[in-house]
Amino acid sequence: MTSAHQDHGRETFVVDIESTLHGRGGSFALRVHFSTTSRRLVMRGPSGSGKSLTLQAIAGLLRPQKGRIAVLDRCLYDSRSGIDVPARERDIGYLFQDYALFPHLTVRQNVAFGLARTIFNPLASVRDPRAERWLETLGIAALGDRYPHQLSGGQRQRTALARALARTPRALLLDEPFAALDPALRVRLRDELDSLQRRLGLPMILVTHDEADVERFGDDVVEIEAGRVRLHERRGANASLTEAA
Amino acid sequence: MEAAWVALSLSLKVAGWATLLNAVLGIGVAWALARLRFPGRDLLDALLTLPMVLPPTVLGYYLLVLIGRNGPIGAFLQQHFGITLIFSFTGAVIAATVVAFPLVMKSARAAFETIDPQFEKAARVLGLSPLAVFFRVTLPLARRGILAGLLLAFARALGEFGATLMVAGSIPGRTQTLSIAVYEAVQAGEDATANVLVVIVSATCVAVLVAVGRLAPGRSPA
Fold it and tell me: Residue A214 and residue A151: Cα distance in Å, rounded?
């Protein structure tokens, strides 16, 4: 470990998991081990290499057979001591690849979705200040009454981001957040995410194929291939910048 | 002619109750079959689909064996609560419910299985309990398929004849539903009554089928 990382002291992400998944095409062995103290980590690798599965394990959507997962010193999964915090209690923001906006709810209802945990969806007419704040921040306040199918790609991404952030998560996981966008928009939204992350200081893991994402967000770069970490590259300069911000 | 309206209102009541019961049972079982993995799942599905293919008389016979005076359930209810199910309104509702059950279960299961799992995952990550995920995401996204199934079940329950006759008999005003009244009218040579009854049944079924057609997937919501 380099000294820049040790300065911070606290590990943002600890992932140490082993799992064998059985699918139609045979079995797949996931053996991913990495830990980091920086707040921006990029995971890259070919499709089907296990990047998304790793994100799902951190979020609690996939239970590994053994290992340990911790985010900001909070243990979320530990097979040896029998800890397995359910996904709903992990306080992790998750941006799905195609955003997974609820098609039957308006933008406003989508953003407010995680704020109330009753069995009823928030009403389209109710304005929760916590949701309104994020609609404003992401510049989609004027779209509050629209449904997801009425939005452009960029607007969907902003809605999904607002929905994840409205619950004030401890960390943010992004699965190819710019893949569905055209190149010009990609550049703009990358800038926006960059400045938003710096402002919030929110630890994040971003999964990508795109070299530009690696350049921008890769304080730590973890390369995954065939279910294993092939390379873990720490790029100190960016990391200290982020931690100072 | 008075008898026709009595039979119609009784049929609507029986079919209404059967649909309501199936809304709970059919949707619940469909969810379990679509989302849970357990041994014997395919066998359970096959057994619960049987009412769709078995002759209604066979079904009626099974029901008599189960809930008749000497059947395990029938005898128990008779002994402890003094309830007799056969030749009663409740018996007619049970027969209609069993016959229409697979229609709700099949449509609801298909509707649940076509939902992209990402939506439920997103809801879990956003802090929802499994029950809240069901009511706020799963059920609304499956609503069209489920509604179509419920409408078909209602039509099926409305037209139910064989099992109902065996279990509940043909008591005017209590168990003589519309379809049984048609049979009785024809047997008694009352052609005028039969004509009215037949037109009522046909019109109701056409209305239901049109409604189901509107709910079919691929058509944009109105």
Answer: 28
DSSP code at position A59: H
Report pLDDT digits (tens) over B117-153. 999 999 999 999 999 999 999 999 999 999 999 999 9
B158 within 8 A of B136, measured Cβ to Cβ: no
pLDDT digits (tens, 9 = 90+) for A197-231: 999 999 999 999 889 999 999 999 999 999 999 98
* A106-127 pLDDT tens trace: 999 999 999 988 999 999 999 9
Cβ–Cβ below 8 Å for B125 and A88: yes
Instruction: Give the gyration radius of chain B's Cα atoms.
Output: 20
Report how far residue B170's alpha carbon sits from residue A157's, in angstroms, rounded to the nearest whole number. Answer: 62
User: Reading across the β-sheet that carries A40-44, which strands appear in turn?
Assistant: A83-84, A74-78, A66-71, A13-23, A26-36, A228-234, A220-225, A40-44, A204-208, A171-175, A92-95
**All residues at 6 or more sequence positions from A140 whose CB lies less than 8 Å from its CB, including other chains:** A107, A155, A158, A159, A162
Q: CA of B106: how far to CAs of A203, A207, B43, B111, B113, in Å?
A: 45, 39, 14, 9, 11
CA-based nearest distance A90→chain B, Å: 8
Q: Quote the pTM value.
A: 0.86
Q: Where are the alpha helices (DSSP H) in chain B?
A: 2-35, 41-53, 56-67, 72-81, 89-113, 117-125, 130-133, 139-141, 143-159, 162-168, 178-187, 191-215
Look up the CATH superfamily of B2-215: MetI-like (1.10.3720.10)
**pLDDT value at residue A7:** 40
Of B122, B125, B136, nearest to A121 by CB-CB distance is: B136
The predicted model gives A122-147 an average pLDDT of 93
Q: Of A190, A204, A162, A161, give the one whose Cα is nearest residue A43.
A: A204
Within A37-91, strands assigned E span 40-44, 66-71, 74-78, 83-84
- Partner A contacted by B214 (CB < 8 A): no
CB proximity list for A161: less than 8 A, separation 6 or greater: A95, A138, A177, A193, A196
Question: In B, residues 131-150, which contact A (CB 8 Å cutoff)?
Answer: 131-132, 135-137, 140-141
pLDDT of residue A3: 39
Pick from A103, A114, A119: which is nearest to B126 by CB? A114
